[in-house]
Write a structure and sequence with these properties.
alpha+beta; three-stranded antiparallel sheet; two-stranded antiparallel sheet; globular; C4-type zinc ribbon domain-containing protein
Length: 103
């Protein structure tokens, strides 16, 4: 029996991946534009991105800026960072977020 079948159905494996990503959700993302603490963030679909453990996007209600939090291997994070820049057509800034909250 294949390893994937031992880990459950495709739906169960997808749910487990979502739960793993949500467990890495930071307490907040600090807006790269106005420095506001952004507590509401949306998980990004990382299912096809090798080397990325979790990625979240927050939209700042104060200045309208989107800020991203990405966790993973250094090279994969850099590549995703560049892909986001290409998609939004603007240079982005790197920052640091606090550790993920524990339940």
């Amino acid at each position: 029996m294949g390893q994937a079948k031992l880990r459950g159905t495709p739906e169960q494996r997808k749910q487990a991946a979502i739960e793993r990503q949500l467990s890495l959700r930071p307490k907040y993302i600090r807006c790269n534009n106005c420095q506001a603490e952004l507590n509401e963030m949306t998980p990004m679909d990382i299912s096809d991105i090798r080397g990325i453990e979790a990625a979240f996007m927050a939209h700042c209600p104060h200045c309208g800026h989107d800020t991203y939090a990405i966790k993973g291997e250094r090279e994969a994070v850099a590549q995703m960072h560049m892909a986001i820049e290409d998609a939004v057509g603007a240079q982005s800034q790197a920052g640091v977020v606090p550790a993920a909250h524990r339940r």
